[in-house]
Design goal:
The structure is a homotetramer of 177-residue chains.
Chain A lengths: L4 E5 L6 H11 L5 E4 H7 L11 E3 L5 E3 L1 H19 L4 E5 L5 H11 L4 E7 L2 H11 L6 H5 L11 E4 L5 H9 L4
Parallel strand pairs in A: 1-5, 1-6, 2-5, 6-7
Antiparallel strand pairs in A: 3-4
Helix pairs in contact in A: 1-7
Chain lengths: 177, 177, 177, 177
């Protein structure tokens, strides 16, 4: 069965974006890539100043409210519809709700053929890469490193602690049918 | 009937992005915004080096090939599905195919309530704003200013030549039900 | 006397950056451009989380402390040295201290030939452009629009309220010897 | 003797920028950071479309002409002047001319106390990271990996092939007086 959707789940600064760009390079077909960052960019700037939206706290924790959840749910439906319309899709997400986040995706994905990929990175290493990226707010990497994987099932896991993005992408692409 | 989708069509540097951000600010509900730029960002980088993808020529002309068209068609379906799922959506697009581009959207949008907005800007003014943005390739603004509107029907037109983005956004928002 | 340095002073969202890029395009020689934004980018990220550094408050006010002032003073000396070494330089700055800010530049610039340019923009229009840019924090444009010009002397003033960046740049370039 | 300037030399995608941001975090004093990228940003956009300026070729090679060299020389003088004025400075550069590039810096730096740092990265690994960054033009990493170090003398070398940016930064900071 042809893989229609690849979903990468991992904490902030675990290296998802780099893997996505490498996947888009090494996979022979053109794949569309969407993720948390592009979703937040699509939302009004004022959503980031509202408890009903998304709040990035000074300690690196992230809280989302009902307005964010509603738009996210519709966005998930739309991304699934793109795959149903024939586009091959790569998603990178941060399952802040662990297994519950995965179940929401599973329900929306219906009968599509999905490759579930866990992107692990040692918490201290991810925290260091957060500094190297120059983000002013620190703490997201450490606070998300473990919790996003709790109760989540994968077809495949990669670990960027000691493995380059391109190597991880090649491992993943070998599992794409 | 509640407006579900706002579609802004205009040439490069006509001011669409600024209007979109102002709309997201002035409209009371949170609206999701997508457009050509976010679509190109979602595609593999190598699509920009291929005649089958999208080629930004040195003279400012833009050519798209079959791979681009196929992904774009699926993306349109997905964006429409987000609106059907209840999210309110703002699209900014460049109808390189004029009326033909509008027909493709109309066919995909089905029974949704759409507000069609033309974003005009004097060609010379848009070309100046292209320079002010610091784009290395110049010519897109001038080559697209008129052609994208050919044969297209609007509910409303705004002209950024002498009118600020925020004022245009308020005019548009007054037409949103 | 050949103009060696052009200094543009104006509030946030008054249109300085667009004018700078247009100046770099229309002036026949290549000019180097520096400004507040590139200075802040050159500083450690942690300077933006410290009262000794620079604090962008939620109401749009900006406060700078002694660490920021010390690095800024050395940076000014360096930019002046580039001009003394033969590079033609465009600076865009926000004179938060009004006349006092200008005096600090004058003292550092010594015998160099400088064109002082005030960049005005109606406060409400600048506030609207701040929204159009999508900045999450609003209020800088309004709070800086007038105060940065207090007691400052110019060779030339431009007003972006009703005049395009490229037109302002051509006006300025006509005063460059 | 207090270290006044840290110069990092390495090829494209060798990891200089990440190390610089980590250095700015771990060093107790605030240090200003400048480099090739900020220099190119300071130049007119049209310099990138001129043989007299800087040309990024499709195969990843970079060629600079006399206009670029002249502005760069003045910029070097200015950065040195910032250090002489008391700011602590981190430079990241790509010594396309190897030992000759170092000599130009040495001549300008005069009596300042400088820490020379080589940033190495295995060529294939750097090429992979170039893909992970999503640069459309590939080849810079591979073409620069070795040549920029030819004939250059260092106080210290770090290798990002298997070592994180933050760890490299801590190694470097231990050599800062």
């Amino acid at each position: 069965m042809t893989t229609q959707v690849i979903i990468l789940n991992g904490g902030s600064s675990s290296g998802k974006s780099g893997i996505v760009r490498c996947l888009q390079e090494v996979l022979p077909d053109p794949w569309l890539a969407f993720g948390c960052d592009s979703l937040v960019d699509a939302m009004p700037a004022k959503m980031q100043a509202s408890d009903a939206g998304i709040v990035f706290a000074a300690d690196g924790t992230v809280n989302v409210g009902p307005d964010f959840m509603a738009l996210q749910a519709a966005w998930v439906e739309g991304v699934v519809a793109m795959a149903q319309a024939g586009a091959r899709i790569i998603i990178d997400d941060v399952f802040l709700g662990g297994a519950g986040s995965q179940q929401r995706w599973q329900k929306a994905l219906g009968g599509l053929t999905v490759l579930w990929v866990g992107v692990r990175c040692d918490s201290a290493v991810a925290a260091g890469r957060e500094i190297a990226r120059g983000d002013r707010v620190q703490g997201m990497a450490a606070s998300q490193a473990e919790v996003v994987h709790e109760g989540v099932s994968y077809d495949l896991e990669v670990d960027t602690t000691h493995t380059e993005s391109l190597v991880c992408a090649r491992t993943i692409s070998a599992h794409v049918d």
